[in-house]
Amino acid sequence: MIKNLPNINFKIRIRDESIGGDNPFKWEEKSTNDFFGGKKTIIFSLPGAFTPTCSTFQLPDFNKLYNEFKSLGIDDIYCISVNDSFVMNAWAKSHNIDNIKVIPDGNGDFTRQMGMLVNKNNLGFGKRSWRYAAIIEDCKIMETFIEPGFEDNCNEDPYEMSSPQNILKFLKNENKEAI
To answer: How far apart are CA 104 and CA 6, in angstroms?
Structure first.
């Protein structure tokens, strides 16, 4: 079933060289449509920046496989997490991420409206996103890849369905069927 993405305004920090100094960034507000409107994208969400699976596999692998996704018709890939813009930008920078765009969902509004907000109090994280990915066309969810076991304070951190390798496999099969 095709579903629209939640219509959210995100508070982000963007580079502005006219500011100068050690922190040449300014606040900007971007909407869901600014990120996902008029194009085919992938969004993937994860429990938190700088966490083991997210930093070791998910974010770096999406970055490495970016050109393969582009060859299959994906315009952009976005990583969203219930973290603030400072954390998301620092995380991307620390991993030399140049292909994936990060979106801070600091208040968890987007994640909540996606139905993916969970409590991770057992880890001291508070409210965070369940791990998932989706293929988006012009703000419409075309396909989802949600990790099994969705629940609050889950002791497991499943990672297979939302992996870039799994999504590439899906897209390659989809393209074969279209021929």
So the answer is: 15
Number of neighbouring beta carbons within 10 Å of residue 158: 15
Q: In 10 A of CB 167, how many CB atoms?
A: 24
pLDDT tens per residue, range 7-52:
999 999 988 888 888 888 899 999 999 999 999 999 999 999 998 8
Query: What b/e readout covers 98-136, taking b as 16+ CB neighbours within 10 angstroms?
Result: eebbbbbbbebebbbebebbbebeeeeeeebbbbbbbbb
CB atoms within 10 A of CB 139: 18
Alpha helical stretches, state H, 95-145 = 109-113
Q: Is the pTM of this model over 0.85?
A: yes
Tell me whether residue 139 is one of the annotated catalytic residues. Answer: no
Write the pLDDT tens digit of every residue in 49-71.
Answer: 998 888 888 999 999 999 999 99
Read out DSSP for 9-46? EEEEEEE-TTT-SS--EEEEEEEHHHHHTTSEEEEEEE
